[in-house]
Amino acid sequence: MRPLRACLGAAAAVTLAAAGTTALVASNASGATTALSNRWYAAAPYLMPLDNNPPDAGAIMDASGLKAFQLAFVLAPNGGGCSPTWGGTAAVSSDTAVQSVINTIRAKGGDVSVSIGGYGGTKLGQTCADAASTAAAYQQVITKYGLHAIDFDLEEPEYENTAAIKNEIGAAKILQQNNPGLYVSVTTAGTADGTGWFGKQMLLEAKSQGFTPNNFSIMPFDGGFSGAASQTSALTNFNSILQSTFGWDQATAYAHEGFSGMNGRSDTGEYFTQADFQTVLDYATSHNMDRFTFWSLNRDRQCSPVDNNGTTSGTCSSVAQGDWDFAKYSVKFAGVTPPTTTPTPTPTPTPTPTSCKTAWSSTAVYTAGNEVSYNSHNWKAKWWTQNEVPGASEWGPWQDEGAC
After folding, report:
1. Backbone angles phi, psi at 115, to 5 degrees
2. Is 327 within 8 Å of 297 (Cβ atoms)?
3. N or C: which end of the chain has fewer CB within 10 A?
4. pLDDT band at residue 386, thresholds of 50, 70 and 90?
């Protein structure tokens, strides 16, 4: 995400105690016990809870029907070290302000994901010694807030640092393994060709580590884009990159692809209107894409004057709109049930038990048609998958073939 997304108010930094990588907590201080569907985490727009004139999350929920928020950004401390902070200044360990926002959202039936990284600032992948220590730092965030979802926003300047990206991808894989059911998205820069050289290197690093998140999302703005047609073209090109990198077919690549837009005026003076969002939304849903989000809710309101004197604001969109117009597209995405990749006929009941296939393994690689058993059910892979628990996601890679 861009410079307007990089600033947070100052707060005292507190050194965090090292935390182990443990299973996803069922509850936390805010009382969160139930995850939303993955479709909501996939639709969560970005919200800076400590800066850029944060809007009232509860008011957005009431006005738009939105249930999920992508809170940004967790960084390394500005003074260095391997402990998570909000914006480099507010230690996660002693935070109460963001926790209060989360409590408000959850009290109204919603939930949050947390985004790490963004444009600018020092990332934990740059300051932590290795993937394990990077993961331990992020695990503190997951545990403190009882998270069911996390976003790795990998862009400048970090994604130009090979060692840092290796740490981030390795950490994402560790968190995915140690927190069953955790929704993991990876967001990176978009170009007309899909993504640039550094984005492609990040994908190759994920492939080399055997890591498959719920999606890889690109940000098709701030790169010479002009409206929705240029964005959907970039998404088509990115789909081809995913296919060639991971050996997926087109449908599988779309099922692991996401869009992260910028509402209104971008940092480079591009304009994206409500009509553009609707066009990209139609593209995303018709291609069964996994994610549709945008930067940001802080900007999802009209400037005064509307064009904001020809500048880009972190607190308004610079286009004519009603409050939370763009959030409503996320709500639409969350409400769309994506089509199945292949038709799945209703199983014919059998009077006798079916024998169980070979037990599912978290380390094995499965391709379309492979069968396993898990939790006294047989499952068939719909596409390439590794370490994705059968039945963990409604739209995941496994088709339930019934009890065994």
Report:
1. -105, 135
2. yes
3. C
4. confident
Q: Report the relative pairing of strands 291-295 and 365-366 from DSSP bridges.
A: unpaired
Determine the distance from the C-alpha atom of residue 96 to the mean position of all C-alpha atoms in its chain, rounded to a whole number: 23
Q: Determine whether 155 is an active site residue.
A: yes
Element (H or E) spanning 250, and its range?
Answer: helix 250-255
* Helix 131-145 with 97-107: angle, nearest 10 deg: 60
Q: Give pLDDT tens digits for 167-183.
A: 999 999 999 999 999 99
Give me the chain's average pLDDT, please: 88
**Contact by Cβ (8 Å): 46, 300:** no
CB 180, CB 389: distance < 8 Å: yes
Number of helices (H), then strands (E), belonging to the chain: the values are 11, 17
Q: Are 344 and 216 in contact (CB under 8 A)?
A: no
Q: Report pTM.
A: 0.79
Amino acid identity of 318? S
* pLDDT tens per residue across span 194-206: 999 999 999 999 9
What secondary structure letter does DSSP report for 49?
S
